[in-house]
Design a protein that fits this description.
alpha+beta, five-stranded antiparallel sheet, 5 strands, membrane, SH3 type barrels, 2 domains, rod-shaped, transport
Length: about 110
């Protein structure tokens, strides 16, 4: 069995495989493209849509806040919105805290 070990020691050590540097650059570019189209682009699109929705808030809109509170907008300020959540019960929230604008009549059907 010694002749197998001797053959193994007699072989020259194998060097690391050399690849083209262009393949590495192409793979890096492909990984960036995958991250851009799967993560960055959809996130930016959602942020743009939310910003447009917050800018279009108006008195009488039925909304849901980030905390899950359902109500109707009674006053729109520059930075804050007053939301009526029950009869004669109003809260002030920041405009970006409005999560969703609901169709008219949602509050009546939810209660």
């Amino acid at each position: 069995m010694n002749w197998f070990i001797a053959d193994a020691w007699a072989q020259a050590p194998a060097g690391p495989a050399q690849g083209s540097p262009y393949v590495t650059l192409i793979m890096l570019g492909a990984m960036f493209a995958i991250f851009y189209f799967l993560l960055i682009r959809p996130q930016a699109k959602r942020a743009k849509e939310h910003k447009a929705m917050v800018a279009a808030l108006a008195k009488g809109d039925e909304v849901v806040t980030a905390g899950g509170v359902l109500g109707r907008i009674t006053h729109v300020g520059e930075n804050f919105v007053t939301v009526e959540i029950a009869d004669k019960v109003e809260i002030r929230v920041q405009r970006p805290a409005i999560q969703t604008v609901l169709p008219k009549g949602t509050i009546k059907s939810a209660g």
